[in-house]
Amino acid sequence: MTKPKGTIVIQLTINGAEHRLDIDVRTTLLDALRNHLELTGTKKGCDHGQCGACTVLVNGRRVNSCLTLAVMHEGDEITTIEGLGAPGNLHPMQESFLHHDGFQCGYCTPGQIVSAVGMLDEVKDGWPSHVSNGVENAPDLTDAEISERMSGNLCRCSCYPNIVDAIRHVHSEAGE
Question: Domain 2Fe-2S ferredoxin-type: where (predicted)?
Answer without folding.
Answer: 8-84
